[in-house]
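Limitations

Structures in this collection are predictions, not experimental determinations, and the ligand pose is part of the prediction. Treat each record accordingly. The example that follows, with iron/sulfur cluster as the small molecule, is included so readers can see exactly what is and is not provided: the inputs are given verbatim, and the output is the predicted complex.
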Amino acid sequence: MKKLGFGLMRLPILEDKADQIDIKTLELMVDAFLDQGFNYFDTAWFYHKGQSELAIGKALVDRHPRNSYVLADKMPIALLRPGTKSPEELLQDLESYFNRQLEKTGAGYFDYYLLHSLDRKKFDVAKTYKAYEFIQKKKDQGLIKHIGFSFHDTVDVLEEMLQAYPTMDFVQLQINYLDWIHESIQSQKIYQLARSYDKKIIVMEPVKGGTLSHLPQSMTQKLQEKDPHASTASWAIRFAASLDGVFMVLSGMSNLDQLRDNMTTMKNFQPLSQEDQDFLIQEANWLKEASLIGCTECEYCLNKCPKKIPIPSYFTLYNRDHLDLGLDPKKKYQATRKNNPGPSDCIACGACEKICPQHLEIIDLLKKVDSYFE
Ligand code: SF4
Ligand code: SF4
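Predicted complex:
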């Protein structure tokens, strides 16, 4: 398999609505992707407010032979509520999500299936539910080919999971050159631990939700001097794909241009030299000093916010202004603010912080954004 996977969480949309996926454009993207010899697609229950699984059913599953692509989906652990349910009821919950996913995609089976976005709390829920045993059973029945989990927590929690789940075929980790030596995300340590358990690795967020495709002029210039034909995003993708044991790098692509750029990078993949890897890690230190907010624009918080605050949009605009990208984020902030509740409308209910896979202190960060722009 070629190492580039199509992440289905930032698909082209209509009328700026996350749940209105532009199926015609998606079909063109899917066809171009397959045409160039790529075949890995990654969806999840939460993506596009539940519409991603349906969309890939229409654009891929209904239109291409089942053996021409590889499809990954994920058990939405964040939705599981054990309460005082009996073992039979817990099993019923898992069965119901899994069967619904098979129905929504129409795929018949999943090539890769993950426990989604595990951290300490969701790990406990997964244990209560016996979710690991459940997906293992589905694998034995031939409804899943490879089992794994995606992960957002610290190294010690990962070690517990790797010990508790010895037969997982792979792990999906957040790895990019900005998070490589980040104190709380700890990409490097997490990667090294997974490798020490001999796990195959899928990388998510190689471009950090798009942050590493919009770099400050000075850094863009340095990268262009190294290779005038390579896009800024391509450096981030290659960084992740160059690591030993990484067999797939997911990229959430929103249009044909992004798709083509990624395919050009990965069609005849050339690993980065050690010198270039060191250069990117060194530059990441500079980026960190710009005190960026580590939001990856996954949008999980959006559905949770009772005030409907467009949290990721505000964080992205804040980051862009700090990186001096010349896109006039202040003006864009005013426009966003005019049509939406602002950062100061936050009532500190904490619902967003509970779901944020990046463990961001969203309430405090919104105050920071508010005082910066307002
Ligand atoms: S803490 Fe603020 S931003 Fe977060 S969900 Fe509650 S109101 Fe929305
Ligand atoms: S604040 Fe957290 S949950 Fe919301 S979009 Fe950013 S990373 Fe995702």
